[in-house]
Amino acid sequence: MGKAGSVAPEDRIGRWGVMYVRSLLAQAAVAHNEVPGGEDHLAVDLALIFPEGPVTVQVKCGTKQPNKDGSITVPVTAAWKKKWADALTPVYLVYVRLEKAPPADWAEHGIAHTTIHARAHWARVNAVSAASVSVPLSNRLTAETFDAWVGEFVAQFGKAASA
Fold it and tell me: Does the structural domain 9-156 have CATH classification 3.40.1350.10?
């Protein structure tokens, strides 16, 4: 594995995380745009486009071990926190946890299926003040999560935002 690769090894894990989230967005039929590399100065990787309005997502990916309660602690920078706080619409941090360390083990390709050895959890980060974000085990990212995010958007902005 790796002879066909054109992504720098240090960027591989980040690409995997974004593609994992994009696969869930495709499953949920949610339109989205990926922020091109080098243009992610707003500390977000994806712009999700719901009929009611947009939300943005910062994706982090790795093999961090969960805390005792199952949550994952993700360090954040002061610059990210400022940018997220400045955003008027919801911003979510998604942590994609790879369950296996070597890239060759991230996916298994069976005859009738492919198994991805990863899971993702999320937290809303507009008002983060600490040096890290605790991403709760209860906030598992699934296709259904996006309905909840639409609900948060509507609760904050109402239906008038989409007019």
Answer: yes
| Residue 111 CB neighbour total at 10 angstroms | 4
Residue tagged 């209860």 (tokens): 138
pTM of this structure: 0.88
Give per-residue pLDDT as tens, 27-65: 999 999 998 877 777 788 999 999 999 999 999 999 899
CA 4 to chain centre: 26
* Residue-range domain boundaries for the chain: 9-156
Q: Amino acid identity of 97?
A: R
C-beta separation of 65 from 51 below 8 A: no
How far apart, in whole angstroms, are the C-alpha atoms of residue 4 and residue 46?
Answer: 26
